[in-house]
Specification:
alpha/beta, Rossmann fold, globular
């Protein structure tokens, strides 16, 4: 996921607002106890998500893919006082860890944390969202996008993580393309061609696709 030289990455983090102690603790515990800790958003990307949320000032956020809750806590920083974040994940084994840090954060009353398949849950959601963050199974990115677009207000944002997929989206065409890489190639092309949105791909960490609904 790391595209910048390490010293540039370190310089960028050194000149970015620090993580809170709670986020640092969650990061440490994730790396110590949970498989695939690289799935965590981390310091720099977390601050990007928090800043976007503070700029949008959302009253409703949808997150598809909770993992250990780091990105959810970052996104909550911009919620309005009466706002709500709905976060979806299919991994029930992480629920205890997620709820522990939600409780410690103080955001727990504003977070609706649901365990289940996002494709089953999203159609039943009646909220209109100001901000959606997609960070789940890559083969279903297009499905999630189509399910949520009509639920996003005009001017609202959809952010999709991992759209550079460790650089595999620009690998030589002579190599065999795995299904996740192909799904992300298809997703990026679909967004680029969608006349209902404006979009920008930011090469931050593993790539963030920022989509503004027109």
């Amino acid at each position: 996921m790391e595209f910048l030289p390490e010293e540039i990455e370190a310089y960028a983090e050194a000149h970015t607002d620090a993580e809170s102690e709670l986020l640092r603790a969650l990061s440490r515990e994730t790396h110590a106890k949970v498989l695939m800790p690289r799935m965590l958003s981390g310091h720099l990307q977390g601050r990007v998500l928090a800043m976007i949320s503070r700029l949008v000032k959302p009253s409703r956020i949808l997150e598809i893919g909770t993992y250990t809750g780091y990105s959810a806590l970052c996104l909550c920083e911009g919620l309005t006082p009466a706002g709500k974040l709905i976060t979806l994940d299919k991994n029930e084994e992480l629920e205890g860890l997620v709820r522990k840090y939600l409780a410690r954060s103080g955001y727990s009353p504003q977070v609706d944390y649901r365990i289940g398949r996002a494709a089953d849950i999203i159609p039943a959601l009646e909220e209109t969202f100001d901000l959606v963050f997609i960070d789940a199974d890559k083969v279903n990115y297009a499905t999630y996008y189509h399910l949520v677009l009509d639920k996003v207000r005009p001017g609202g944002l959809i952010i999709a993580d991992n759209v550079l997929w460790s650089g595999k989206v620009v690998q030589p065409t002579t190599k065999k393309i795995d299904k996740e890489t192909q799904a992300l190639l298809d997703f990026n092309r679909m967004v680029q061609q969608d006349q209902r949105v404006r979009n920008m791909l930011l090469p931050i960490r593993d790539g963030l696709m920022i989509v503004e609904k027109l």
